[in-house]
Design a protein that fits this description.
- By secondary structure, this protein is of the alpha/beta class.
- The chain has a single domain, classed as Glutaredoxin (3-Layer(aba) Sandwich), CATH 3.40.30.10.
- The chain is built from nine helices and five strands, in the order ααααβαβαβαββαα.
- The protein has a five-stranded mixed sheet, with helices on one face.
- The longest helix has 18 residues.
- It is elongated, with a radius of gyration of 23 Å.
Length: about 180
């Protein structure tokens, strides 16, 4: 091998060692996303409320659609604590006599049932109909529909300490949820 080639390889290795030996992990501030209060999602709500959610008929059987108007939608990529909070809300609503249908996408629902200690059925949105119909909506969220499957309201679940918005949301919507 020529001397020039050896010097070039040695120079490249030296360059990589110098430039790659620095800090390779980002600090926590760079990786974290600011939490928004549910009130800050008003733009998302405006784009979804009053739209038809007929795609639910492709996921859930018609008998369930007729009996329920409250749905919990989440993804396998969502914040685990946020999804946990959503299932806690479902349990609290169930104790109050309000039925909720959980719908998941991009996740293993069997593992989710074990992890979130949820014994009832979780429906799966295999066709990602939610995003086909509503484009962008942050998950997890609760969605209330009327009998015609028109979206009445949504509540986006977040992991915020001392969150009282979920309580006020479901208290204000009680009449609409219990058809």
């Amino acid at each position: 091998m020529s001397l020039l080639f050896r010097i070039s390889v040695l120079g490249l290795v030296f360059f990589c060692l110098i430039n790659c030996s620095g800090k390779t992990t980002r600090n926590k501030e760079e990786l974290s996303f600011p939490e928004k209060s549910p009130r800050e999602f008003s733009g998302v709500k405006k784009n979804i409320v009053n739209k038809q959610a007929k795609f639910l008929g492709k996921i859930i059987d018609s008998q369930q659609l007729q009996e329920n108007g409250l749905y919990f939608y989440y993804s396998g990529y969502d914040c685990g604590n946020c999804v946990q909070k959503g299932f806690e809300i479902i349990r609290n609503l169930s104790e109050a006599g309000v039925s909720t249908i959980p719908i998941a996408f991009q996740t293993n629902i069997g593992q989710d049932q074990i992890y979130y200690d949820f014994k009832d059925r979780i429906y799966i949105d295999q066709g990602d109909y939610l995003h086909d119909n509503f484009s962008f909506i942050p998950t997890p969220f609760f969605m209330i529909t009327d009998e015609a499957l028109r979206v009445v309201d949504i509540y986006i679940v977040q992991n915020i300490d001392g969150d009282t918005d979920s309580l006020s949301f479901f208290t204000n919507q009680r009449i609409k949820v219990n058809r």
